[in-house]
């Protein structure tokens, strides 16, 4: 593995500090009310330094979203690659996803509430990157579900359809949780989702 030089380590460290500061300010004020100078102040850098790393506030915001998506995908994919049973992997993935979303509630709330206000060209750029990552995740999930079908753990249904169905349930509960006037822990819904999914996909003779 090639050794990373001091300057590159410093560059990566500064970039990370800027992203963490941006997340904090965006979560507090929203995207459209936030300025680059406020992010620079939070990161304790000059505003000009921010533009050395990100050419605009939009690029900074999109990078943050992209890296959040990449972070949760890494966690989920690592679990899906484990050698445990299919059901155990699915249950653990649901817990990972809900814990991650709950931990980053402010960020996801800003993303969901303000995405529609971007110009169409900007939304297309953002949506395409997120969509590509989602497609990769769903395909990986479908491969794991196919293992369950092949082993006789799950009903002989189309794995890709099952993957989309599971993702749809998760997304529905996620949006409901975000807009609920009565706060509750999202992780409390993980077992409910798991049971709903199993009742539709698990072979009945295996349920005791």
Instruction: Tell me the CATH topology of the largest domain.
Output: Tetracycline Repressor, domain 2
Approximate helicity band:
over 70%
Number of strands: 0
Overall mean pLDDT score?
A: 86
CATH homologous superfamily identity of the largest domain: Tetracycline Repressor, domain 2
CATH architecture of the largest domain: Orthogonal Bundle
Assembly state: single chain
CATH class category name of the largest domain: Mainly Alpha
State the end-to-end CA separation.
50 Å
Q: Write down the secondary-structure element order.
A: HHHHHHHHH
- Backbone structural class: mainly alpha
Strand content: under 5%
- Radius of gyration (CA) equals 20 Å
Structure at a glance:
This protein has 208 residues and is an all-alpha fold.
What does this structure look like?
The termini are far apart. The chain is built from 9 helices and no strands. Helix 1 packs across helix 2, helix 1 crosses helix 4 and helix 2 crosses helix 3. The chain is elongated, with a radius of gyration of 20 Å. With 208 residues, it is mainly α. It folds into 2 domains: 55 residues, Homeodomain-like (Arc Repressor Mutant, subunit A, Orthogonal Bundle); 150 residues, Tetracycline Repressor, domain 2.
């Amino acid at each position: 593995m090639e050794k990373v030089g001091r300057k590159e380590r410093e560059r990566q460290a500064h970039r990370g500090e800027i992203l963490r500061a941006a997340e904090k300010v965006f979560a507090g004020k929203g995207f459209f009310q936030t300025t680059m100078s406020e992010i620079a102040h939070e990161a304790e850098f000059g505003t000009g330094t921010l533009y050395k790393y990100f050419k605009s506030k939009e690029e900074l915001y999109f990078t943050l979203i992209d890296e959040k998506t990449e972070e949760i995908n890494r966690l989920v994919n690592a679990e899906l690659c484990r050698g445990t049973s299919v059901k155990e992997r699915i249950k653990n993935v649901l817990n990972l996803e809900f814990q991650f979303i709950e931990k980053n509630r402010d960020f996801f709330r800003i993303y969901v509430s303000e995405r529609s206000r971007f110009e169409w060209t900007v939304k297309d750029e953002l949506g395409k990157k997120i969509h590509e990552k989602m497609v990769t995740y769903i395909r990986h999930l479908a491969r794991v579900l196919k293992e369950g079908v092949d082993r006789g753990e799950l009903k002989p249904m189309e794995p890709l359809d099952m993957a989309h169905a599971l993702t749809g349930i998760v997304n529905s509960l996620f949006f409901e949780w975000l807009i609920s006037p009565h706060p509750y822990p999202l992780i409390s819904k993980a077992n409910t989702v798991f049971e709903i999914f199993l009742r539709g996909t698990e072979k009945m003779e295996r349920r005791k």
